[in-house]
## 1
Amino acid sequence: MVAFAEATLIAYVDDELDAATVAAVEQAMRNDPDLARKIQAYKDDTALVRAAFEPMLHHSLPPLRMGASADPATAGHDLPSVRPAGRPGRRRKPARITGHMSWWMTLAAAVGGFVIGGTSVYVSALGTDSGTWLALQAHSDRLVETATLDNLLENQLSGTSVEWFNERTGHGGVITLIRTFQTTEGQYCREFTATSTLDDTPAQVRGVACRSDQDEWRTRRRVIES
Amino acid sequence: MVTLRPRVYRFAYVLVRSPDEADDLTQAALERAMTRHEQWQEGTRLDSWLFKIVHNLWLNRLSAENVRRQHRPALSLVPTEEDGVRNAESRLTLALVRRLIDKLPQDQRMALLLIVVEGLSYREAADVLEVSVGTVTSRLARARIALRAALDDEAPRTAAGTLAGGGL
């Protein structure tokens, strides 16, 4: 029996081997259940690590400061001087909710053809279909929907609809922004509707999201038809 | 609409582990990308080009600052949504994975992020990090082996919790 270096097994999982080595690894896997299990474990790790990094994509970001610094290479760490006034550190300006071009529109306009296609959100590919993985997949639909909603709330004008689709689960939906208003406390809130097949249940949902001081969208939603 | 900005930010965050510094790096990198878009080679991945810009900016800052980054807080990759108990067990698992990744040396963490999470090839990751393919390969292997060993260690404990949780 051929013994493979650990790095070779890992390269197999990462799809980095040439065809001959792939064939050799797969041949060995058929004869060696331990090896097959080991490789499966690395594949599961891929799914786990992707899922673990997923929430970081939903961090809300302040508006892009266009032309705020000269050449970043040299101006580099002078950048903090262009931060919004106030306590340095975590503080961020409220989102520009209406009327402005969002950063990616600016980017697209500036460079042309820059925006990466489609309407579906970046979906974490979750791994095997057993046990906790099912739980993770269900979670993943929520993550995708939430990411779509957050992006919409943060960057789009009322009236905009966005579709999302999770290739992994085959679930998807449409979210539409209805209107934007400000509460008497000055908090920005946005009303939206969502239709989705989240967790296998088609539902029509109406919701309100308000932007917290921590720059998060706190969402309340009510199912109006399922 | 898909945007690359969250992924650029994530790359910066995993690199520097400070939300504000990551934000600055992201802003600077996107500005630079826009002013130098002609340097992007068509047919290559736009994401890895942006990662490379972030990485370069960071290297420049490091030399400018003369390295004062001993006390970095641990990654606080707390999920932002709240959807109840149902996902509690997967949360726990993911929190564990994040803790384990956080213990990896930065070199290995970056290789893991680029290849496993972002799906770059070894070649592309080597290009972003400006090291050889062999170096990236061994960093990634060490990261994956360490992670697997740590998860094996944890397995008896978390398996019990997962089964008891049984949300589905």
## 2
Amino acid sequence: MGKPYRYIGKATPRRDGAEIVTGRSHFVDDLRFERLLHGKVLRSPHAHAIIRSIDSSRAESLGGVKAVLTWENIPDLRYGNPRVFRLLDPKVRYVGDAVAVIAAESEEIAREAAGLVEIDYEVLPAVFGDYEASAPGAPQLYDEFPGNVLPLGDPFLGPKSMVEIATGDVESGFSEADVIFEGKCGYDNLPNPMPMESPRVVALWGRAAEGPDAVTFWVSNQAPYLMKAVLGSILGGNVDVRVFGGPCGGSFGSKLMSWQPMCYAALLSKNTGRPVKVVYSKEEHLAAFTLRPSSRLDIKVGMKKDGTVTAIAGDWLIGTGSYSQTTQAQVAVGCGEAMLAVRCKNWNVKPRIVCTNRTASGIARGFGGQELKCALFPILSRGMAKLEIDPLDFMKKNFIRPGEGYLWRNAQWYDYRGIDFTKMMDKGAEVFGWEQKWKGWLKPTTVEGNRRIGVGVGVHGNADVGEDVSEAYVRLDGNGRVVVHSCLQEHGTGQRSNALKVVAEVFQTPLEWVSMTPADTMVNPFEFGPFGSRGTYIILGAIVRAAEDAKKKLFELAAPMLGCDASELDTADGFIWAKTAPEKRLRWQRVLFQRTVLGYGRFEPDYSLSNCLMSFVEVEVDTDTGKLTLLRVVNATDVGQIIDPQGLEGQLCGCLGTAGIDSAIFEETVLDPLSGRILNANMIDYKWRTSSELPAIENVVFETPMPTHRFHAIGVGEIATSPGPSAVLMAASNAVGVWLDGYPVTPAKILSALGKLGSAGKIKDGANGK
Amino acid sequence: MKTFDHYDARSIDEALGLLGKHRGKARLNAGGTDLLGLLKDRVLPQYPELIVNIKTIPGLDYIEEDGERLRIGALARLCDLAGSRLLQERYGVICEAALAVAGPQIRNVATIGGNLCQDVRCWYYRYPAHLGGGMLCARKGRGPCFAVKGDNRYHAVIGAGKCFAVCPSDLAVALAALDGHMTLVSHRGERRVGVGDFFSPLRNVLEADEFVKEIDVPKASVPRLQRFLKFTLRKPIDFAVVSVAAVTEVKDGIYSDARIVIGGVAPGPFRAGKAEEELIGCEPGDAVAAQAAEAALEGARPLSKNAWKIEVARALIKRTVYR
Amino acid sequence: MTGEIFASNVESAAGDKQMSLMVNAHSYLLTVGNRPGEVDPAHTLAFTLRETLGLTGTKVSCDKGACGGCTVLMDGKAVLSCMLLTIECGGKEITTIEGLMEPKTGALDPLQQSFIDHSAFQCGFCTPGMIMSAKALLAENPSPSEEEIKEALSGNFCRCISQYQVVEAVKAVSGKKR
């Protein structure tokens, strides 16, 4: 079937491709500034301590040092949810917490100066475990949070954000069940989104044009407007914040948590009158920035023989580490995502967020839903196993369908108006060979000596595809070219190039006639940013509307010149004509002589649609060494309409990295149980997927038109990472024949599950060497 | 990196002179793939005042056989070892071990001498200074071994004392299985040390004024079976969780000689004498391989989280000895 | 600093120690020292390329030799510029991503074009390093197998998982000249 489109659905080169492959893409650290200073952070050696005194005089007197900031000489700036977390605090709450920031002529001088700051600490007992943190007598991180429990709810989501999953009556639900079971599961290995480019920013305080209370940021980020809003709210209402978004070397949500380095750079710049750059080292990135939240679910489930879930009740414990910026929002979205994936009339799941003495958790691809479902599906699996229900059938039966609904992040009920995803799930199963490979619960697909193969499946959907607001202008110039004004930031998804495609499609112009303003908050209208797969529906939707608005205005100008009604006109390749008289063509330039046409588009939030991705995985377990190898992944999804096939392929293959599938295989952050230090804060000990060990991946993509914008597309990139981890756990359990219920599935866990570590595994600490 | 003085040595004598003059405050640099990491993270108790480049010393990158021995200059790169026809044909474990190190870019600069002299990967020892200060431990001359009560999943299960870090060198394991020796030079003269004896729990035996000049291996009189296997969570990049090199001779259908060396389990390459005893005099086969594997780490005393390494070592021994 | 320390490098008439660095077929004469624009003995090649010579196409990510982002060619072989001291690179021929284009016409190397054609990148931060590793492979082995391509790229981190498309991009130009 031929596509009706000129560009949409076809492979077109990324607009920034030539810059990327030649090394001319200017990431933040590639920008050049005159008189640039380098900022460094002095970090705490203690997991929990009060700073009794700081003496920075020696550091200040080192040649080349321009400023040393501590909590004593900066304003009391606070951020987070709730807004109690100080930028620099007289109390430190994790090893690596910021104690002082230094600006110097070189990075090396700044680092040297950090070693000269003298601090007297009063060391406090620390707590690292989420359960331990809320136990009686646990060390308290904040006076504001007794028991280390943070309040739920995020004011940003509205007056009534989702703070629990509570619908129906769980007691009557349990009474309808054929089987009732209880289970606990944790997805608590704290993987790191770990974009390749670490957090980094250049700030310049004060500009001649905008006055002394203006600050400009060049920051590696995913959403300039959000950074502008965040920094504006921290620095105070009268500070004019401008944010440039250039190329970003990966974010996966995490870079939205850059308020600390941005504030460091801003204050250092304000103090020195010079631009200041703060670049986190990879070690800082891994140990002093942001991790996935930890998630532990302890629930009771009622299930019927046909796979109907009658009730789910229990507790969801979320660990946020030293502070929270968005953890409450992640909990709210996660709760909604659970309802999308598991149809159940009676829920009573109570989340609780605790803080501990480790670096903070925050945004990571999968925003709350991945964390919840990686714990939920392994528990549901126990019930499916009791009832001998095939998990594919369970997921097909229980994923949201038209005629149903769910509570979303603002605690409002939404009637789902999207499509039924069953067909694509069936196709994915067929491509994977599920029917042949699935042998039943805890049954391997094949056994050959010590090599056992197992399969698993997971599913995820997200109604964030329609979250928040986007605005755009589309400007038609006298020369017949089209300029899109949008603060859409390129962070790897290719969405800026996609925006050019949809606009070229609207005007039927050559693709190269369309260009886009830099993602600069000063010249562009509001844009929430490409999060949660919202780019395809909401951002492109706003841009399409702006383009259509501009086209309408263009036609209104052209109509009298062609002597007909605007509604009769059509355009392509810079000409306009009446559909009834196509031989009489008018050039855009004639219409736009000494004139600019500006179209405006805005898209309001719409939480009544969800995307869906199902991942099938096949793993091999070596029962001698305990090693798990991921052999094959089949992703199945329906995107409504492909915008760019290569870009989509890239997003779906992204299921492995960014704390996705591999968080079930080898990704984890290792915390020293005694000191709380993160031990694997480097790219050798923090494991990531290499080219020589790529599993086979096949992506099955359906295009059932979605009720979104005129191109009927829906985004799916964000959720690529989410169905996989629990699928791997399922596959590993089936391969081994024993339930595995911890991430990642390390060789030690497999050997232990197989009973191979016997007495040796039980030897207590310190037995060696005596 | 904090600055230092730098000198391109033209001869071993020149390098030795500088080591002597700077009394422990000079460090030799070959490939640099380990040293630069140590300097950047400020791991070493004493930051060097002088770096002596030894890549500028000519003629130290040979791989050649004489009448009795295979001789490898300390500056031979891992890519050279992996690509050497001589090694591929007669000393296969060296090639396998060289290819198992890190990734291609590292192998293009890292040297055999550097691989043997590299510092341990213990994550307590290597904790970077700029994340709240480094961790003073037994290996640094002051403090405990944090691994004992901490996260010791990768630490030693046998032969460790005050420090439970394991030998990170893959080449050491292969070379020990070939009965390799290292020639160390100082102004006091030369000494030969068995590769297995080069390592001890707190440090290697190289003195601050010594230079690793050459690695040698006896030529084999009879054909041998050689195999090196390395277990890691990922094939490239990673240091060995466990590695095994097995070099065996089979005469008249029975093992006449065997050297089995295990890496990643002890402060040095661990020679599994008990496993060797199980093999000698027996017919090759699954059963005897399993017995050897069972005996290999007899006496191992795992810490709280590293018992799994013993199981991995057994699996690897079975696979290296017989498959 | 003693006179002998840099004896192997050239001493200029003014008494400054100098070294020459050959990058992308251009010879740079650099002064050894710790003033701005000079090469400190502790400077890595990655630092010198980016900060002293302004060749920012080479990216630094882990700065510890574990991610391949800073890969350049040294005498034709892929090496990690974050783990080399600039002062030890005198006399070597360095090629960076900036050196791949046809110098006169500015035409892209076929490998670069193939990366564009296959959208073999997402965020693009790893791409220069990936291309340099692939370039070194193709120079040594113009018709590599898929396994050889994956092995050659095994030291290059990509968090977005562009590797599938990278392998296709390299395959598409293998067996071809240049």
## 3
Amino acid sequence: MKLLKVAEWEFLKIAKSKQFLVMTVIIPLLLGAFGGVPILIERLTGDRAREIAVLDETGAIYPELSRRLEGTPLRLVAATGDRDALLERLEAGELDGLLVIGRDVDETNAVSLYTRGLKGLVLDELKEALTQVLSERRLARAGYDPEEIAALTEEVRVSTIVLGTEGRTLADMAVPFGLAILLMIGAMFSGGMLFYSVIKEKTGRVVEIMLSSVSARELMMGKILGYGATSLLQIAVWGGIAFVIANHYLGISLAALTGVQLSTYPLYFILGYLLIATIYAILGAGMKDAQSGSQLQGFATILPIIPIMLVGVIIEQPDLGWVRAFSFIPPFTPATMMLRMALTRVPWWEVLASLVILVLFVYLLMRFAAKVFEVGILMYGKSATLGEIWRWGIRPSKEGEWRG
Amino acid sequence: MAQTPLKVHELVKRFDGLTAVAGISFEARAGEVFGFLGPNGAGKTTTIRMIMGIIRPDAGRIEFFFDGKSGPLDKGRIGYLPEERGLYEDAKVIDVLVYFAELKGVPPKEARRRALAWLERLDLGEWAHRKIEKLSKGMQQKVQLVAAILHEPDLVVLDEPFAGLDPVNQDLFKELIRGLRDAGAAVLLSSHQMNLVEELCDRIFLIHKGRQVLYGCLSEIKAAHGGHRVELRFRGDGSLLQGNGLVKDLELADGRARFTLPQGVEPERFLRDLPEGLGVEEITVRRPSLHEIFVGVVKGG
């Protein structure tokens, strides 16, 4: 089938190109590195910056405190001698901090921490550890035995549960949420490449040679299909990298995806991609070069990801009236629905209705696009106005008469 | 009886109220080069795009006959070199050729074999695995022509194939076109360069402002729009030619004369009656070129 041949050609052409390699493999690795750099810097500088001398006048708190802070970036060293001498050393930069625990600390419940600046110091961890050590000392003095103390001071486990999410945790939502955004970005990206490919075929005058073998409709559909395949490949690579990182560092697993999400996300992605790609095909066919397309293209780019830009609101209130309404406005549907389904339980009829509306809309849009494509791709050196594009798209088709 | 792969009946196309093609009819026969000629903007490319099913006629019919049967447009049987042509710049020559042939229904292996053979024949063998963008413009045009005929079509439609070619490649293209004709294809050759292509054509259709000007066998047209063109260089008195009943459309300028002998006047008769005192240095007598016939018909109405 010619359509598939066109799709295969377009897919291989992109998949073998250097830009694709860069965008698909190198950029995510860079982003990973970019995200990892602050952590790396923290680790590299942490050891030096957080060496804190402890002048423990009680003599009993330092060992316990030091034990509790093991494994944190704070490193405590026991200090002896004169406070002023130690302060001089701090000022000279030999120490990063000086913690002075007075002999009367059990009564005053206060300590002093001297630093040259607060930068890089995780005070919360130090404060928490001190509080615990001191409370345990007080409890011990009050006559509790160590087991009782451990039970009494056990740390509270906090799980964050957002209202209306049926008990799902943030981690459970992060995966579908991330996937939703990944899918939309993937669809946008491939749609954009399709746009440039159509323009290039026009400016390179390849179009008419192609039309001597395939119909405008086959050419358009083949391109959309081919770029869809590159999009899937790209998302698989991006998703794979993201998953490996998330799994390794955050312990997140794909089990966080529910059956409903697993079955509907691919549909929303495919329909969302078709919608975006078709809009781009229309724009590509109507524009004489990439520059004249850029303004309209910008608009087309923004439209389907408006829901992602409004993600703040959607996270807070995924069942809000206008958020639900967005679910049924086709350009917004894929992103809105995927985000909502990540955050809350969406009634099945809303899912179904949104899909039906989306399928219908995409079908009509593609018919419209095919007609625009027939006229637009042969127009050289002149960009069409939106009015012209509209007239091309709605003109009645008289296929039987001429194609046979 | 020769096959006739293409018949066009009363074809009409209008754009925004302007009539680009105003009801023309013609046919292209197997084993001939059919010249579809006319100045720029006459409606040639529009007609060809209708034949190729790229745009739709407003009225009229296009019939195709392959294997003796009437049928719909079968792009696999037609080769097309558009006027606006280019190839995927960032792809390899051989890949592009195989891709286009596959779209025409040629199996990939066979497509590859034929493509390499053609490239060899056109001295492009070593370029097969280079990218199109590395090729010179002339080389690219050769590759485009190969792409149009790799599937061995029954009907070959060439829109301005000589545009931008140097004289050496023009001759090469002419030879290739004759080869296609001799192999039995119907070649529809569209061009505005009438003088360049007339020697190639067996039959012609002259189009002007969307209408037929002349249509038929080239030699018959030449005979019918006869007369002879004469060009003279002389030493003597040019005014002796004025008032000569055999001389039409005389143009005189320092030692040169150009004129037409009206239809029915044999060159021998004129030569016999050459006036004394003209002092002829050089004389050329020839049939008018297609271009001259065209201009004559269009002007004369």
## 4
Amino acid sequence: MSVYVYGVTRAGLAAPPGIRGIGDPPARVRTPAYGGLAAVVSAAPDKLRPRRRDLRAHQDVQLAFAGRGALLPTRFGAVAADEEAVLARLREGAGSYAAALDRVEGRFEMNLKAAPVEDGIAALVRTDPHVARLRQESRRRPGYDTSVRLGEAVMAGLRRRALAAAREVADVLTELADDVAPGAEVPGGVLNVSFLVAADRVADCRAVVDDLGPQLADRAELRLAGPLPCYSFCGLAAPAGV
Amino acid sequence: MTVIADEVVCAPRTGTLYDVLDLVLDRGIVIDVFVRVSLVGIEILKIDARVVVASVDTYLRFAEVCNRLDLERDSRSRTVPELFGGMSGSVGRAGARKATRSLGGKVGGKVKDALGFGDEDEEPAEDDRDRDRPRRRAAAGGAGGRSGSRAKSRGKEG
């Protein structure tokens, strides 16, 4: 029977009471062990799709284990043919998994995303000669093309302002972090970066964003997510072609 | 200038599903011998969202906001920084709230569509309800001509 895999942890770490896996009804979470390692698994549902409920369950299970020690979280959707296949993989990867677990032990991922805001349009027009010129042109000769050009320049300018503001915050968070990993570009965003943070510094990270966020609110919308399982800091290169 | 009194109440976003989607789906370990379920809906969603954000409609709206700004008045009052800051602040913020909401709303809507794909019987997730609520309240309390444009942008979301 195929099993859904949430991640790799250390042996001896029991599933937290009340934790529910993916599927409807929620599957029971188990931790088959090999040597010093254990996989976090449950029965795989027949039809697995990226439902809200299952994405949430995937993350909740991972976070519960990460909070109890260390976990190498899988991406959503990892399914193995059976439990033997999972244990065989633990045996083969024992060395690298153990090293990666040491790296994330007692740590969480904090993710900062930043998006532009319109608050600074007036400041942008005053400080950016290109935008100011396009605006004058658009007022003198209103039209579709001039409007598109102006809007495009405004968007670019807002993104620049947002990125500069976001970098100020990212610099402070970097000082609190043990490691930093840039994330993929997200739609509409200007910055997406993750920080590997010791559990006792999670609150400090949040305080930084709570303090600086309002000050920078006319330049960037800042969103800090976390504590999260250490998705970006597992230290295992993805196999080619994935 | 219409002053909007209601502040948008932002739910604490310590990890709304949308904000961490890129991590849950594209980060974390990949175990090559395991099958990874194909997540077609999500790929389409990401492309769609990018197109929406960078659309000509957005440019035109930015141009409109930009042209509406009363900069001449602003520059004359440059000797009075407090007044100046207050003015541009309220103009900008009002526009930004509208924009953030319509952008966020559109993207959020797409996420909702994709996550609910083929799953009609499922209740909306808690966090989605939380995120909708302040928007609804803000629109209901909107003052003057602004509420009209809000209702319009909200209509597009659905």
